[in-house]
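G., before I forget:
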Amino acid sequence: MGKPTVHDIAREAGVSLATVDRVLNDRAGVREKTVARVRDAVSRLGYVRDLSAANLARQRRYRFVFLLPDTTSQFLHALHDAVLEATAALQLDRCDIEVMHVSVGDPVALMAAFDRIEAAGIDGVAVMASETPVLRDRIGRLKTQDVAVVALITDQPNSERDHFVGIDNVAAGRTAAVLTGRFAGGREGKIGIVVNSMMARDMVERRIGFDRVMGEGFPNLTVLPTMEGRDDHAMTERVVGQFLDSNSDVIGIYCAGAGMRGLTKALEDRGLGDKLIVVAHDLTQHSRAALESGVIDVVINQNAGHIARSAARVLKAQCDGVDVIASQEKIRIEIVLRENLP
Amino acid sequence: MGKPTVHDIAREAGVSLATVDRVLNDRAGVREKTVARVRDAVSRLGYVRDLSAANLARQRRYRFVFLLPDTTSQFLHALHDAVLEATAALQLDRCDIEVMHVSVGDPVALMAAFDRIEAAGIDGVAVMASETPVLRDRIGRLKTQDVAVVALITDQPNSERDHFVGIDNVAAGRTAAVLTGRFAGGREGKIGIVVNSMMARDMVERRIGFDRVMGEGFPNLTVLPTMEGRDDHAMTERVVGQFLDSNSDVIGIYCAGAGMRGLTKALEDRGLGDKLIVVAHDLTQHSRAALESGVIDVVINQNAGHIARSAARVLKAQCDGVDVIASQEKIRIEIVLRENLP
DNA sequence: CTGAAAGCGCTTACAG
DNA sequence: CTGAAAGCGCTTACAG
């Protein structure tokens, strides 16, 4: 006999299929004694349920929403594309995925988005947004309705989210620092840092990691105060330009946020295209080109494809009440050089 | 109406379910005109078949074999564990996976293994072995029997394998070189290279990539002739020891093969634990510890878990005649430092 | 509290 | 060359 099925359990326990099903799915209204008989048969026969048959019978589909910021950046673009790509593949796994672009910083817009999600009876939500009280509350509300929730890119550690899909940003900052420091090879000089805003947790964490390694390991390098580029090319170009013009012995720049095009423009306009050690975040069309031309030396990447797929897998596993393969869902801090560009 | 099903096709085409099934599965014995009618209905209704329902009806299971060398190394160990881990998860996807450890360098043993595989009616094989004529032939034979075949770690470019699951070793060598070169920061000195054997294609490719970048970008560094460690700790320790004792201004070592424990021992015995730039391959218990203690500076890694899962996914997709997500199956050249250790 | 029967979307003998 | 009926392993009204 092959793998045992519900029929085998029914026979072994001396009950009907319907009762086996009730017990298997923890539905109420079965006598304790009967429950015990069925559970007994299950463990005696080593029964393990065929989820795809169950889903077929139940005509189950999983409905997930990816709630992303409505701002634009090349990374967000890449993430959006990755979600669409995952969507196509997951259709076959009975998952329907919708992407919602929302002004996540605006509490009213955020509330409206969550209202829509609740009304639509969604099974799982992956949300990328800064931590706010509104967001924390709405995640909590979703959890009372048994909706699976994962935080994307930016963790929501004080919320009830089931899982975080993203990198450890302190470690990312440390990684950026050690590469900058080692590439400097003992030379003395100044290092600049650009972030979006020091209000964003990710940026603060990256800066902390960066400073810590610099302090411990590279006394020859001086890290200057943080510049804020506000995710904007023009702004980034301006602050970096001013920084370069007013400091003589700059040997490196760590770009922890977006606005990378402003950074490379500022460097190129000053003929510094391949003079400085430049470490930036996230592999995009632009950063790929900058790596190839040598303007950027290192890209610290969080793989958008992996993040999209991981989020979907985790949401589905949460709905099914099964475990994920932990190592598969761990988002790596990828170090990308011109030589190992994928 | 939801997604169309076989019933809808049957009605629309004015035929029975059995006939729809015949056409859908390209079975012979249907009049051309009938085939056309069904295909027409399919495209008109935008029918897409439910693979899991089909697999249920057909009681389909996929039987895959991972054919691995019977030699031992920490990487092989990690790969083996990764396959077992993937196996557990894939049970739910109707995949049965068996790992065969075979003396892949011995033609007789290899032939016997393939005989067993053919006799057992396996659906797909992932094979890790050096290129040999015997292997090429047997892969060809499997393909005539419609068995899916992927090459693991070492490509079999002249065979009829369906896919290669592994990294570009020339690029890996280039990556090792650029990190060694940049960490050297302009200093002059000698660089040693240890491989298993220059008979192995991977090793040759890594050496080629390494030399090329060194030649182009780092004239201050002199790369010395290759040492061969034969995948053996004692041997590796001996050749590296001799190398260190007979060369004065060594500033780095690239360990492209296994036997890493011999390497770190040779270094530590001479008090060079954190003096040299050391780049090695593959993340294992030992290399992780060596990264943490600083004896090794960089590990170039091919993710064993990713490789195992990718191989299984590709085999299954091949059996089902569906596409994979290319970016997901691309094995990355991971750069691992102490700071971004997973 | 429990069971008989029909159904999810597909495939498979078997009969004609 | 084609179709009616039963079945894959599970779930769902409905009836009792």
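Residues 15-19, 22, 29-31, 34, 53, 55-59 of chain A lie near DNA strand C (CB under 10 Å from a C1'). The interface with chain B takes residues 50-53, 55-56, 85-86, 89, 92, 171-172, 174-175, 177-179, 182-187, 213, 297, 305-306, 309, 322, 325, 327-328, 330, 332-335, 337-340, 342 of chain A (CB under 8 Å).

More on Monday.
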